[in-house]
Amino acid sequence: MKVLYVIAFVLLGMATVVSAQENGNIEQFLDANDVVRSDEQYEDMLAVLQKLWMAPLNLNTADFDSLKLLFFLSDSQIDNILAFRKRYGIFLSPEELLLVPGIGKKDVENIRQFLYTEKVQPSQRIKGIRSGTIQELITRGKISFPRQEGYKRYSPEDFKTEEQYLRKMKSRFQGIPLGTMVRYKSQVYERFQMGLTLENDPGEAYFTKYQKAGFDFCSMYAAVSTERWMKRLILGDYRVQWGQGLVAWSGFASGKSAVALGNEKSARGITPYSSTDENNFLRGVALDLQPLPNLNTEIFFSGKKTDGNILETDRFSEEDIVTASLYQSGYHRNKNECAKKHTLKERTVGLSVSWNTPYFKTGVHALYYHFEPGMGIRDKIYQQYNDDGQNRVVTGVDYKTGFRSFYLFGETAWSERGEVASLHGVRYSGSSLVALCLLYRRYAKGYASHYAGGFGEYSDTSNEEGIYLGMDLYLIKKLKINVYYDHFRFFSARYNSTIPTSGDEILVNMAYEHVRCNHIFRLKYEEKPEDLKGGRMATVWRKKLELRYQLGIECNNSLELRTCLDWMHYAKADKRENGYMVYQDLIYGRPKGKFKMQFRWACFNTDSYNARIYAYEHNVLYGYSFPAYYDRGMRTYLNINWKPVTYLTLYAKSGWSYYPARETLGSSVTVIEDNKVFDFTFQLRFRF
After folding, report:
1. Cα-Cα-Cα-Cα dihedral sign, residues 319, 325, 326, 331
2. pLDDT, average across residues 385-399
3. Backbone torsions φ then ψ of 274, nearest 5 degrees
4. Of 36, 29, 34, whose CA–CA distance to 53 is shortest?
5. How buried is residue 110: exposed, middle or buried, by Cβ count under 10 Å (0-12/13-18/19+)?
6. Is pLDDT at 130 greater than 70 in this prediction?
7. Contact present, 602 and 592 (Cβ < 8 Å)
8. What single string gives the DSSP state of each residue in 225-258?
9. Which of 230, 231, 271 is nearest to 248 (CA)?
10. pLDDT at residue 313 above 60?
């Protein structure tokens, strides 16, 4: 009956009458920019771009931080736009961006729908609030065949002892093999926002003692915005972005990618949270205040429960010390996984004060957090400086300024233990032929902030020092070359490396546009030391070389063909492994049409997982798919979205993977006793 109740609830949500205007095919633009790194970041990018589609930026008044939200422009391109506007005056249309050095036809196509060029009258009060009420309801279901090992059912007769049977049953999935998601958003004149997200992964049950709200994950928020000293109040779930991410940063974070000059972060402060990541958010109350025109203050209080593994108790004097480690997969499909749900209490308080002027921006940030029980420091050498989460206090100061063609930015943060993390960068954009960025970072091995997201080789913003040099070159018309070199070293052991080590990474990306064709060639080389496996205690160089060539052909305004060739070489000690992948995409859709389609056929062959190749896949709106291709096989999928009426858009994706040399796929509870797997996702979106 509970399952029937859930299905009825989902169908009722699908039948809710809400209407809409479409936001355009935003997802196809993300495919052309190598910036997607995680599910949470992808949803964050889509949410920002959808908001910009509904409330475009004024190209003649937008500052650096506003244009940074477009994601598709590098920092040097934004610098050139602002310098061009300052020198020649307002833009009459977005197409005039083609006159800006470093801006090509593809760049204008990417950002055109997010900009407008209406001249602002000084005597007119600037209105940043769009009229009308916008509501959105999304329902999604996803399933795959054949079923995984975790769905199998057993009887006591299948085992020799009752203990074996009970242990097996703890790993059985409790729910049906259908993943579901319901998301509702409402916005009234941008003065009031509210949202609700309900989600279950395949195999997670409904209405159990672990899912008392029906769905495994439930998130909601309400936000009120004003034009007075209290700019925004958020109740419920939210995320924080401050400075350059050394103290706190959640959501999309710029990192090393083909956008070589995209490393300066533009913080959005405190914003509502509507993603499906079940751990990386804050829950409570947040305030954004502006007591003076150039002074901004943000304060928040958060208290929630977080997933964790309770570790074995240690005997110390006469007390038992209980510790835990974070469990961040978000899966609660069986009793073993459900036992990890909400086992930690997380308390967080934060305060930020920033001063913004046209010539200089600075901010002071302070963060306190405490986990109960604390996170245990394990016995492995690379874990000796792990964050225990007990009464941690982190403070930081960030800045941004510029002089002529030079722009400086950075942040320095320190913990209550005196450990310091620092990042500083300088960018030059004074030439039409070349733009440069030099960035230095140094994160002490004992520095830790659970919420940090600073630029670096690893995401923990700790135990790392590095220097990064990025360049954008425009030597030939219609040819854009992006290059970066990053040298990094670690002060103590890292995962897979028991001694302090260093490494290097180089990327060269060349993009050339010619009439209806575009060519992209990419070379990426990385080397860093790693430990040998198999009992041999030694550290050797691990090297990876990736080559990619992509050809895009616009047959007409509706049809594009995209061919991609990838090759990977992996070397470690005496091991040499290679891999390749070839795929052909067919992309169909008129600019203002009601039907869009993406089809792919891919063939791949790698010697092992070491030589895996990643490739972005189109998916339903807010869906994320960036799988690793390895072994020998074939992959094909069809992704469509259709808008039969104004208020309704239907999305569907079906995929099929085939591994001829395999008899089973997956491992442990996800094993499939077949060499073929079929996946299907269906989604409905209502807007009015």
Report:
1. negative
2. 92
3. -135, 15
4. 29
5. buried
6. no
7. no
8. E-SSSEEEEEEEEEEEE-TTSSS-B-S----SSS
9. 271
10. no
What is the distance of C-alpha 98 from the center of its chain? 30
CA distance 120 to 125: 9
More confident residue, 403 or 440: 440
CA gap 189, 247 in Å, rounded: 32
Neighbours of 28 (CB within 10 A): 15
Is residue 195 scored above 60 in pLDDT?
yes
Residue 136 makes CB contacts below 8 A (sequence gap 6+) with: 18, 20, 183, 184, 185, 186, 685, 686, 687
Mean pLDDT to the nearest integer, 551-580: 93
3-state secondary structure of 128: coil
Written as six digits, the tokens of 124 are: 């007119």
CA 227 – CA 643 distance, rounded (Å) = 36
DSSP at 283: E
CA distance 97 to 268: 25
Which tokens is 620 given? 């339903």
pLDDT for 15 beyond 70: no
Q: Which 3-state string (H, E, C) describes 362-399?
A: EEEEEEEEEEECCECCCCCHHHCCCCCCCCEEEEEEEE
Distance CA 493, CA 152 (A): 42
pTM for the model: 0.85
The answer to whether 424 and 410 have CB atoms below 8 angstroms apart is yes
Peptide bond into 627 cis (omega under 30): no
